[in-house]
């Protein structure tokens, strides 16, 4: 149990008037906690949102020892504020931390820090349908030292950003570029960890896909460039010949919490579900034979993103006639319904703050 000291922002910032967009507006407060070798995590505090002051020699700037998480708070029609499976973000934080030599944070402390901050800034959780408060916990290596070694000091920060509706006109399918030159991650590396370096590695391919008119990249495995891995900041699902298929977590894929929730729902709905290796050739063949019924991405930001078009080399594959399939729609409605308190939560996923 953390002892969190709270310093209020006086006077509070004005609330945003125009459209929220994503990730550019921040709430009144942020959470901070320091780590010092020999002392552990200490000085948990909530302070007014402000710039950080750091030495330019801090190790995070040189070797990228950094992790982040992403989750959301939702407000229901009766004003209750909910988090969705925040313990899973705490568990994943520690899986990432282990891989990149950042000390563990007890999951209860992680959830307490998030809940306390959300509670304090609860009037920043937007209420319009489809909106939410995006929560970004992250940890950076703060020891001022240019040597390559795990840092002896860290800073754990949580900031929050009210975010607008992802789909203003209902679920809108996107076009995806299958990348066969650049790779994102390899087994044994940090692909399963939520660390900024994975995103630095992804940007050149993302830029290339956008130039070609595609919203995001579908990554292939880093060794053979043959097996499908994931999309940008989303895991990927296929419905092939009636079965729901997604790449198995093999070490180079980020274990999404939305992915896990979707797998649970599909299994409970009695669908045939497979987590396994899926080659791009299998997908091309399934599309040609008409067996590829649906493709969609899963992630906290958009929940479910239908894929209407997949481009692999010279093949442009249209999926579900370029529209949104029934499974993607049902999953979107169920997950967001549970998140907002509109559907009974039989899984214990929804936490009231
Ligand atoms: C965060 C993330 C996801 C999605 O995870 P969720 O827990 O569902 O939000 C998928 N892929 C990558 C690379 C990510 O960083």
Protein described:
- A hairpin with a 2-residue loop joins β16 (303-312) and β17 (315-318).
- The two termini are 16 Å apart.
- The chain is globular and about 60 Å long.
- It has 353 residues and is an alpha+beta fold.
- The chain has helices at 60-63, 86-99, 107-120, 196-211, 257-268, 280-289, 326-339, and strands at residues 5-6, 29-36, 40-48, 66-68, 71-75, 81-84, 132-141, 153-163, 174-179, 216-220, 228-231, 235-240, 243-247, 273-276, 292-299, 303-312, 315-318, 350-352.
- Strands 1, 2, 3, 4, 5, 6, 7, 8 and 18 form a nine-stranded mixed sheet that branches.
- The chain is built from seven helices and 18 strands.
- Bound molecules: pyridoxal-5'-phosphate (PLP).
- Residues 70, 194, 230, 233-235, 254, 256-259, 298-300 line the site of pyridoxal-5'-phosphate (PLP).
Features:
alpha+beta, 353 residues, binds pyridoxal-5'-phosphate
Find the count of extended strands (DSSP E, 2+ residues): 18
Order of helices and strands: EEEHEEEHHEEEHEEEEHEHEEEHE
User: What is the percentage of strand-forming residues?
Assistant: 25-35%
Briefly note the structural class of the backbone: alpha+beta
Distance linking N and C termini: 16 Å
Shape: globular
Chain-wise SSE layout:
Blueprint: E1 5-6, E2 29-36, E3 40-48, H1 60-63, E4 66-68, E5 71-75, E6 81-84, H2 86-99, H3 107-120, E7 132-141, E8 153-163, E9 174-179, H4 196-211, E10 216-220, E11 228-231, E12 235-240, E13 243-247, H5 257-268, E14 273-276, H6 280-289, E15 292-299, E16 303-312, E17 315-318, H7 326-339, E18 350-352
Parallel strand pairs: 1-3, 9-10, 9-16, 13-14
Antiparallel strand pairs: 2-3, 2-8, 4-7, 5-6, 5-7, 6-18, 7-8, 10-11, 12-13, 12-15, 15-16, 16-17
Helix pairs in contact: 2-3
The protein binds pyridoxal-5'-phosphate.
Pyridoxal-5'-phosphate (PLP) is lined by residues 70, 194, 230, 233-235, 254, 256-259, 298-300.
